[in-house]
Amino acid sequence: MSLYLTTPIFYVNAQPHLGHAYTAVVADTVSRFHRLLGREVFFQTGTDEHGDKIVQAATAAGVEVKEYVDRISALFRETWPLLAVEPDNYIRTTDPGHQAVVQQILQQVHERGDIYFRDYSGLYCRGCERFITEKELVDGKCPDHLTAPEEVAEQNYFFRMSRYQQWLIDHIKANPDFISPERYRNEVLSFLSEPLEDLCISRPVSRLSWGIPLPFDSNFVTYVWFDALINYISGIGYPDGPDFTRRWAAAEHLIAKDILKPHAIFWPTMLKAMGLPPYRRLHVHGYWNVNETKMSKSIGNVVRPAEMVEQFGADTIRYFLLREMSFGLDASYSDQAVLARRNSDLANDLGNLFSRSLTMVKNFCQGRVPQPGPLGPEDRELANAALAMLADYREKMEQLAFRQALEAVWEVIGRANRYIVGNAPWELAKDPAREERLRTVLNTLLETLRCIACTLKPVMPAAAARMAAALPLDPEANLADQQQWGKLPPGAPVTVGENLFPRIKQAK
Ligand code: ME8
Question: What is the pLDDT of residues 14-62, one digit of tens each?
């Protein structure tokens, strides 16, 4: 099985922040996890560079639009390596290749009769970059942007989305995994229980010139979503690239709930009109708040990825994001909460287990993997728990239940720490008659650490690589290879390196 995984392409009207970082970290973790299972993965991210909001941002910054989008797009691109996020492709909607594909699709859908021209007036939300319906408003305002929409009346082109409404409902019902978690699937089905309006896909050039011209009417440019969503296929070589069909069959999108409708409704119906099958799955996550408050420029509480990484390091931030948010629900960020996770879960639980175990192997077993004797009940209990954890971890990761996957790992870390206390290897080391028992206990600990190191590869790649190098564990080993006991060859050298996660005294 293979996977083609995407993040949204982010608007370049603002700099990268915590919310963007979360989606990127999730996508990177899922990619690494699938690779750990030996699967082929293609991971794409990028930037969305057309539309009103971007022109406004460039004007506010006092630079040419193109110069502005180049600068912010580069900023996103440079942010990902700081978080150890390694996409295979980085797409920009200003790429000439992308623009050509958008025009070709517009032409094709137009010729098919699914794009038509008419007068229109409606309520437009600039934040959402789409017309919204009266029903969506809360107290007259867009519930996401807390601003009143503008009345806009003009002639525009429309995509005949309503034609595909019943097909979409049937598809969602026949494929329970198509949209997850389930709450979002239900939300979409509930929205689809009312008649669907057609989608406005153009802007008159007189109002907005920063867009892709319609191939059949140069007085208009495409409207944001018809341009942006197509990145998911233009980025993998639609229509006739050699990998296109294979990759598209494995397509899964990751988004937050803010852009559920464009992804769950506009995009599948657009694909249908183009004669393409829908993507395989859509995964929807919640919002990060900061200190329990919505992140916003005006409040001044926007968290920047570069600052988080500078303070805590990429591994700690990745762990925190995945451990703290239940995928699908909202979560709250604070430096204090990161500090607490760093010092308790990473420095205390994991870091201590690792350094204590390796130091004892160095001191009591000449720094080599000891040959174990027969396993006693407490050894078997830890071994079984570690192996069961690998299976549980795998199942939870497949469901994007990162929090539960990590809880399962930390349950075994806790057990292993208690096992050290219960078996007191330093006491065994004093008695030559108990040397075999000592070797058994330390071997059981190293084997447990091997299982733990393997699970952490997708989540904390740098720390997991250091653990693997110390044990020593084959860095290329896949998860299935690890699901047995006794994989570390007795006699292999074990190295005690620096502390994995030194304690951090205070958040800045
Ligand atoms: O919507 N919590 O771009 P965008 C969690 N260009 N995730 C968040 C978040 C938060 N507080 N804030 C943002 C666009 N995100 C369009 C997408 S796709 C064809 C076009 C993340 O820059 C999350 O992934 O507003 C969300 O869906 C995305 O950023 C929105 O990014």
Answer: 899 999 999 999 999 999 999 999 999 999 999 999 998 899 999 999 9
Whole-Å CA distances, 114 to 153, 168, 213, 273: 22, 16, 18, 7
Put simply, whether the predicted model's pTM sits higher than 0.70 gets the answer yes
CB within 6 Å of ligand 1 — which residues? Answer: 8-11, 19-20, 22-23, 48, 228-229, 231, 255-256, 258-259, 287-288, 295
Contact yes or no for 379/446 (Cβ under 8 A): no
Burial, 207: exposed, middle or buried (Cβ in 10 Å; 0-12, 13-18, 19+)? exposed
Strand partners, 287: none
Helix 18-36 crosses helix 305-312 at what angle (to 10 degrees)?
Answer: 70
Sheet architecture: strand order including 293-294 = 293-294, 288-290, 331-333
Q: At what angle do helices 377-398 and 402-423 cross, to 10 degrees?
A: 170
The overall average pLDDT reported for the chain is 96
How many angstroms separate the alpha carbon of residue 67 from the centre of ligand 1?
Answer: 22
| 232, 258, 333: residue to mutate for ligand 1 pocket, most atoms within 8 A of CB | 258
What type of residue sits at position 115? I
Question: Is 200 assigned a catalytic role?
Answer: no
Band of pLDDT at residue 309, cut at 50, 70 and 90 = very high
Distance between CA atoms of residues 148 and 145, nearest Å: 9
How many whole angstroms from 133 Cα to the centroid of ligand 1? 21
Catalytic residue among 34, 50, 128, 454: 128
